[in-house]
Amino acid sequence: MKMPGVLPFGRLLLEKYLHKGAAAIDATAGKGADTLFLAERADLVYAFDIQKQAIDATAQRINQAGYTNVHLIHDSHEKILEWVPQEVINNTAAVVFNLGYLPSGDKSITTTTSSTIQTLENMLPSLPKECGILITAYPGHTEGAREQNAVDKYISALNQHSFHAAKYQFINQINHPPLVYALEKR
Amino acid sequence: MKMPGVLPFGRLLLEKYLHKGAAAIDATAGKGADTLFLAERADLVYAFDIQKQAIDATAQRINQAGYTNVHLIHDSHEKILEWVPQEVINNTAAVVFNLGYLPSGDKSITTTTSSTIQTLENMLPSLPKECGILITAYPGHTEGAREQNAVDKYISALNQHSFHAAKYQFINQINHPPLVYALEKR
């Protein structure tokens, strides 16, 4: 496939925002794939997860790759502003959300509609101009569909003078594949 | 804006499909911007428009840039298969549609829902594997909204085993901005 898939498209976008000298936030560390991507391209990364298993897996991945610029926080992303100092927020180039459950983890523990929207609500006003926010949603399972719906509604209602908000999705698949939302603070 | 706009996103995708040695088709030459983009990156281009004014403008643009690899056809894109030889179709890397009316032309003359769908219906089965089809739609005016709706429905119903079909759009603007559909023959 020459067309970018949803995850490669997200990476392609992140490349436009990330740069050395900047900070980045991984709101959902999971197994650490995005955290590592951010650590390679920014000076400082804060990565959050509510699951100890995810924090451990991410720590291992980051250590193995030899990166020492990641703060791993075992807490909900709703509390990002409590953990990340304001001067780091001011210098944040990108924030990544990969919604849903931990792959091969306990599927009953997922990001939830209320925590995701609450996190955006908390954080968006504090982020600097030109910061990119990338949200990958997985409507293929029940809570995921509910969450994607809420995120879609929330993002569609953001003031166009404050945010650019785009969506990239595959539209002819029967199994509700993942899709990506991209926000940029204006 | 670091996020790609709809037109730059389309170009970014076209770059993935186009290459020297291949042919390309501009189904809606308009003022020739896409035709020129294709002429620069493919060996042979067929460009269609139903308006003489558009053909003349495109001819001038292509000539001024010194390209001699463009066949300009003053006819509807519904007739693409009548004009483009089968061996050229077999070697086509990308097809571009920029729907709607000619900028600064007669706004009563637009591509129409029926001609666009009919053209896709005629052409898609004949295109080679890995050919990319890019469709930019303009739902900001009445016929444009109707057309976008029909294109969306048509593309969403394409068999996922025959086509990858993606959509990129800005979702928080009140004035129904242009959006882009990308198809890839599997």
- The quaternary structure here is homodimer
Number of domains of chain A: 1
In terms of structural class, how would the helical and strand content of chain A be classed?
Answer: alpha/beta
So, the CATH homologous superfamily of chain A?
Vaccinia Virus protein VP39
What proportion strand of chain A? Answer: 15-25%
* SSE succession of chain A: HEHEHEHHEHEHEE
Tell me about the largest β-sheet of chain A: 7 strands, mixed
Helix content of chain A: 25-40%
Which chain pair has the greatest contact? Answer: A-B, 32 and 32 residues
- Poorly predicted regions of chain A are none
Q: What are the defining features of this structure?
A:
seven-stranded mixed sheet, homodimer, globular, 186 residues, 37% helix, 7 helices, 22% strand, Rossmann fold, 7 strands, alpha/beta
Describe the model:
Chain A is globular and about 40 Å long. Chain A has one domain (6-185): Vaccinia Virus protein VP39 (Rossmann fold, 3-Layer(aba) Sandwich). Chain A has helices at 6-17, 33-41, 52-64, 80-83, 86-89, 113-123, 142-156; strands at residues 23-26, 44-48, 70-73, 92-98, 132-137, 163-170, 179-185. Helices cover 37% and strands 22% of the residues of chain A. The first copy, chain A, is α/β, with parallel strands linked by helices. Chain A binds chain B through residues 1-4, 13, 16-17, 130, 132, 152, 155-160, 163-174, 181-182, 184, 186, and chain B through 1-4, 13, 16-17, 130, 132, 152, 155-160, 163-174, 181-182, 184, 186. Strand 6 (163-170) of chain A pairs antiparallel with strand 6 (163-170) of chain B. Chains A, B: InterPro entries: MnmM_MeTrfase, SAM-dependent_MTases_sf. Chains A, B: One of its GO terms (biological process) is methylation. Chains A, B: This is Putative rRNA methylase. Chains A, B: GO terms for molecular function: methyltransferase activity.
